[in-house]
């Protein structure tokens, strides 16, 4: 546990005026407010996140290109595979959070996950480097002779799912560990912690942008082996950077009882309390002390309020699932759209299709300082809320923007199909459509601004609203939104592909000039609108754990 991160915890720590309650330093002594944590420690952790996201997006952002290229999978099958892998990647943080919050603590879990990450990326590099593991190159149309064998395909999938397992331990713990460096009980540090979530996401997107701009070019034009090897090196550097900051960190001092066991007891006690109360009120002449006794028993060492607080998160979690389906499209169909357009800059340079995702990261990196330094102080004057607007208001604004981004994507796709038809390119899917890639930029920028609101809002909300001992779990719950969303997206694609192909060309035909991604985008916009209405219903009645926040 984090209560004794490196050295045994002293039996009688010396009191100090600046000592913090509930946190220790790397030696196991009470953490000093003046010499530990805050931005000094947080910057190390943000730096680790930049390197880790560089490594992760080095795999995820261009995965569909590798699957439809060297592995020769169809567009629909590759999109489903990417969504499934992304879904598993987003669900595994639940296991990582459980291990961190119950056994090892966040610091040690990050160390173990980093080592596993490095191993997984090493195997992935070997899968594209060694002749026995690398899929054969094809100089002609795809055929049996140049398809990878089962062992090559299996080894590749084993490596990427090992990456998913590693980031499952790394992702929730790193962000929670970073937020732990700020004391919510201190007014200044509390405001800094809210700002931390903004700059954390800015660092995340900076790492993603560098990946998309540089690494995707290497993968598409130089070598997949080098393109996978660079993330391997980046993850090694991330581990070194994390270790360098050890002396500056604050470690959350966990209680002896597992927080998961505690919350489980709370849920059971809550159910029993309500059952006893209901029974007592419905039976004439029932002992009036029975319900009181049950409540007193439940309150003895078990915080029922914690259970109610966790249950209150469920409707918010569920209503955000449709956004997660929208979120999945940038690394799948947006990328495939871009591959059909004129991507030339100058006379010879071709922008890699996956590099278009950099516009998302660039817009986020550009907008977060505006939001954090301009919009928040302005809105704070009117709302008197330290964060400017509430977390749920921020998420709601993001949902509205996601609807607009899907509508814009649909309109652009209609334009792309119309251009292909005008130039007689419907049945020439490999011919570049005379339409500039810049047509896609607005939907990418809107997509990025959407993330500033909804993604950062969700991160802060799920960290802030769970019990203190379960904050890794809180961020894991946030990530599971996107895990389930990816599974829903994968299932929806499979169902729509099968049903629409019966009456003609599938919405997701390998020939995108005969596909109808525009219909799919309009469908997502409509479902997002319904999801927003349901979200607003639950958000308006949500009771925040922290008094300084107010409902939507």
UniProtKB/TrEMBL annotation:
Its main location: membrane. Signal peptide: none annotated. It is found in: Membrane. It is a multi-pass membrane protein. CDD domains: MFS_NPF5. It comes from the Eukaryota. This is Protein NRT1/ PTR FAMILY 5.10-like. It comes from Dendrobium thyrsiflorum.
């Amino acid at each position: 546990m984090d209560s004794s991160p490196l050295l045994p915890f002293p039996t009688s720590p010396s009191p100090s005026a600046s000592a913090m309650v509930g946190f220790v330093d790397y030696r196991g002594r009470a953490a000093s407010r003046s010499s530990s944590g805050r931005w000094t420690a947080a910057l190390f952790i943000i730096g680790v996140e930049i390197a880790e996201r560089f490594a992760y997006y080095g795999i995820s952002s261009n995965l569909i290109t590798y699957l439809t290229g060297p592995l020769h999978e169809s567009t629909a099958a590759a999109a489903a595979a990417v969504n499934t892998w992304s879904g598993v990647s987003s669900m595994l943080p639940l296991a990582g959070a459980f291990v961190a919050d119950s056994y090892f603590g966040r610091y040690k879990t990050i160390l173990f996950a980093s080592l596993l990450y490095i191993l997984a990326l090493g195997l992935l590099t070997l899968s594209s480097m060694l002749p026995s593991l690398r899929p054969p190159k094809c100089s002609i149309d795809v055929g049996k002779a140049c398809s990878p064998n089962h062992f090559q395909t299996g080894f590749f999938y084993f490596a990427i799912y090992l990456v998913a397992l590693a980031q499952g331990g790394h992702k929730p713990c790193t962000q929670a560990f970073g937020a732990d460096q700020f004391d919510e009980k201190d007014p200044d540090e509390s405001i800094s912690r809210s700002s931390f979530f903004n700059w954390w996401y800015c660092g995340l997107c900076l790492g993603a942008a560098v990946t998309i701009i540089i690494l995707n070019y290497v993968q598409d034009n130089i070598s997949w082996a080098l393109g996978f090897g660079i993330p391997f090196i980046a993850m090694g550097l991330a581990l070194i950077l994390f270790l360098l900051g050890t002396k500056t960190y604050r470690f959350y001092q966990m209680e002896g009882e597992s927080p998961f066991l505690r919350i489980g007891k709370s849920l059971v006690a809550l159910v029993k309390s309500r059952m006893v109360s209901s029974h007592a009120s419905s039976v004439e002449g029932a002992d009036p002390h029975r319900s009181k006794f049950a409540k007193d028993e439940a309150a003895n060492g078990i915080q029922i309020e914690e259970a109610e607080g966790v249950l209150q998160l469920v409707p918010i979690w569920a209503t955000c699932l449709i956004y997660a389906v929208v979120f999945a499209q940038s690394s799948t169909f947006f990328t495939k759209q871009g591959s059909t357009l004129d991507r030339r800059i100058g006379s010879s340079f071709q922008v890699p299709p996956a590099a278009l995702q950099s516009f998302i990261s660039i817009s986020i990196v550009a907008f977060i300082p505006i939001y954090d330094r301009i919009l928040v102080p302005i809105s704070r004057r009117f709302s008197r809320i330290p964060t400017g607007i509430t977390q749920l208001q921020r998420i709601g604004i993001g949902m509205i923007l996601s609807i607009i981004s899907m509508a814009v994507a649909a309109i652009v796709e209609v334009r792309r199909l119309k251009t292909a038809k005008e130039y007689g390119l419907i049945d020439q899917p490999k011919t570049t459509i005379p339409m500039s890639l810049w047509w896609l930029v607005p939907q990418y920028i809107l997509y990025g601004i959407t993330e500033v609101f909804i993604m950062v809002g969700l991160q802060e909300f799920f960290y802030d609203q769970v019990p203190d001992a379960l904050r890794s779990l809180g961020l894991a719950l946030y990530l599971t939104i996107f895990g389930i969303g990816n599974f829903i997206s994968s299932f929806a694609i499979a169902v729509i592909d099968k049903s629409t192909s019966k009456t003609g060309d599938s919405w997701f035909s390998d020939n995108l000039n005969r596909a109808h991604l525009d219909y799919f985008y309009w469908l997502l916009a409509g479902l997002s609108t319904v999801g927003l209405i349901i979200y607003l219903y639950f958000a308006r009645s949500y009771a925040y754990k922290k008094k300084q926040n107010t409902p939507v």
